[in-house]
Amino acid sequence: xxxxxxxxxxxxxxxxxxxxxxxxxxxxxxxxxxxxxxxxxxxxxxxxxxxxxxxxxxxxxxxxxxxxxxxxxxxxxxxxxxxxxxxxxxxxxxxxxxxxxxxxxxxxxxxxxxxxxxxxxxxxxxxxxxxxxxxxxxxxxxxxxxxxxxxxxxxxxxxxxxxxxxxxxxxxxxxxxxxxxxxxxxxxxxxxxxxxxxxxxxxxxxxxxxxxxxxxxxxxxxxxxxxxxxxxxxxxxxxxxxxxxxxxxxxxxxxxxxxxxxxxxxxxxxxxxxxxxxxxxxxxxxxxxxx
Length: 291
Fold this sequence. Notes:
Layout: E1 10-14, H1 19-31, E2 34-39, E3 47-48, E4 51-54, H2 57-64, E5 68-71, H3 75-87, E6 92-95, H4 102-114, E7 120-122, E8 128-131, E9 135-138, E10 147-154, H5 157-166, E11 172-177, H6 188-197, E12 203-209, H7 214-225, E13 230-235, H8 259-268, E14 272-274, H9 277-289
Helix pairs in contact: 3-4, 5-9, 6-7, 7-8
């Protein structure tokens, strides 16, 4: 089992004909993902990497039955690309693009809500979603782990890869990179709910980072709704106050948003929190070995 992305998912790539779109379309295809076409209005009717290119998301969905779109378009065009996917009511839209203005992210997130939340947005500025052995939508390396029964949700792309690799002997049902921007489509809580409901997931790794209160809200959700074991890591223990670290959303102000405050909130509800990514992997290994 997996969440949101399965072996039956049919993927289209918005911006497939660009440099990044081409490279990662090849990688997704090589991993076994069912990429069925691309979208570029100026190249509609042509083929690229052996796949048809369509003028719109709606046309691509009608012709191929696609139910996932991966967005590889420049930041200034991302808002329009995502709104087009929402208008077409594609069930899942994975926005890889980095540097999307927060105002634009806010606008297309609100647009999705206005349209009835028929399209789940993951990202922007994220590595995407991978269900090992089944499908891969985005830029997560397909060969660093195996299929298994751990669910992973992470703000950080590189830490997603590290935990997937360190726990490769147990494997993952699905790994979801939600991105670290201040406004994102899918949250920790969304993924926690899906993993809790997924019979193929036995335990959950949650990776957060300094800034905002997403991890504290996730802790409150875990206390009320999650019965599966959760292990967490919060990046940024050494971050100085007032300095943005890496992601646009990773900024600490006073005690709000610090790694320590997030760690305490999670531990208070029974989540085991590692001091390093490797310790976090060890904590999860202990849980899986005891099952």
